[in-house]
Amino acid sequence: MAKLGKRMREALEKVEVLKEYELMEAVALVKETARAKFDESVDVAVRLGVDSRKADQNIRGSVLLPRGTGKKFRILVFAKGEKEAEAREAGAEFVGGEDLMKKIQGGWLEFDRVVATPDMMGVVGRLGKVLGPRGMMPNPKTGTVTFGVKGAIEEIQAGKVDFRVDKAGTVHAPVGKASFSVEDLAENFNALMGEMVRLKPSSSKGKYVRAVSLSSTMGAGIRVAFVSS
Length: 229
Hints:
This protein is α/β, with parallel strands linked by helices and 229 residues long.
């Protein structure tokens, strides 16, 4: 069994593992136990009562966090012509077509988010096995396949977060940084959860939101009491 580091031991001493904390208390505890020397991300993990193998229960969406993510993303855009110029003017780090596709196939992954115009999806489609598992494959449902390139880039930098359920029925998503105030993290959390609840499929039976936890990058998981309407 791996030996726990001093920071993790100290964090676990402050957390009642089986307790479900009220949101504001949970957020405050996440901030208190974030002891790394860098500004840790704060992430939420939500276990849903869905079967992701069924198309209508494969939850996927996006939400604009009202207080942002605290991160500047390196955005790659697949576009050509006027849309290529638009992407560069909007601040995309990398813009291109087959040249970028081949570079990615060669193992290059120095970017965080991907946007593509619809006419470039024939090129992007060849990267499904690379981008898909990393959650970076452009998709119309998340607004990342669009001719509105400028708007898509601006939304991402403003705090737009994409999320999808994994094979185990769990959604992982960031809600900010440990340096954020308790109020700002709670507001982002509520925005994310509100969108997730809105996407509840009618075919999902029983309890939809089964478990919620918050954690910082290097911190302990903290259960959150959450009741969906």
